[in-house]
Amino acid sequence: MIEVKMSPVSDGELRRGVFAKQDIPKGELIHEAPVIPYPNEEHHYIEKTFLADYVFEYGMNHTALLLGYGMLFNHSYTPNTIYDINFDNHTFDFYAYRDIKAGEELFINYNGEVDNDDPLWFNEKESDDEGTS
C-alpha cells in the first residue's frame, strides 16, 4: 500500500518520504509502526545525534523511536495522514486523514494535531540562523 522514495520536499537535501502505491480511502489504516521507547531523562543522549529530529513523544514520561516507515513521514501543516499512539500494542498507527491518490506523498503534522500550526523546532533553527547572518 505504501513505499519509501526520495521526496521532492527535501530543500536540497536527500530526504526520503512515504508514498501511496495505490488509492487509500479516508480513515484507512496505512501503517502500524512499532516503537522503541526510552525514559525522557535519557533524551539528552539522543539530543547529541541527528536522531533528535526523528523521535516522537510517547506519553508523559517517555520518548520513542519509530520502526518501520514511522520516522520517514514528512511534515505538512495540511497533512493527508494522521497518527494515533496505540499504547496497548506499542505502535504508532497511521491513518488516511482524507482520500489519498496513488503516487501522493503522505504527510503528517509533526505537532501531533492536524490543525496545530505552531512553529516547529526546525523552523525555529532557520529563524535563528537567519537572525545571525
Structure, briefly:
The chain is mainly beta. Helix content is 12%, strand content 35%. The strands form two sheets. A five-stranded antiparallel β-sheet has the order 4-5-3-8-7, with no helix packed on it. It has a four-stranded mixed β-sheet with strand order 1-2-9-6, with no helix packed on it.
Structural commentary:
- By secondary structure, this protein is mainly beta.
- The chain has one domain: Beta-clip-like, CATH 2.170.270.
- The protein is about 10% helix and about 35% strand.
- It has helices at about 45, 120-130; strands at about 1-5, 15-20, 30-40, 55, 60-65, 75, 80-85, 90-95, 105-110.
- The strands form 2 sheets. It has a 5-stranded antiparallel sheet, with no helix packed on it. A 4-stranded mixed sheet has the order 1-2-9-6, with no helix packed on it.
- The longest helix has 11 residues, at about 120-130.
- It is globular and about 40 Å long.
- Residues about 125-133 have low confidence and may be disordered.
- One of its GO terms (biological process) is methylation.
- Pfam families: SET (PF00856).
- One of its GO terms (molecular function) is histone H3K37 methyltransferase activity.
Shape field: globular
Largest beta-sheet characterization:
5 strands, antiparallel
The helicity comes to 10-25%
Question: Helical region count?
Answer: 2
* Helix vs. strand class: mainly beta
Name the average pLDDT: 89
CATH class: Mainly Beta
Radius of gyration: 15 Å
How much strand content do the residues show? 25-35%
Which stretches are low in confidence, meaning pLDDT under 50 for 5 or more residues running?
125-133
Give the CATH architecture.
Beta Complex
Might you state the CATH topology name?
Beta-clip-like
Work out the number of β strands.
9
Order of helices and strands: EEEHEEEEEEH
What is the multimeric organization of the chains shown? single chain
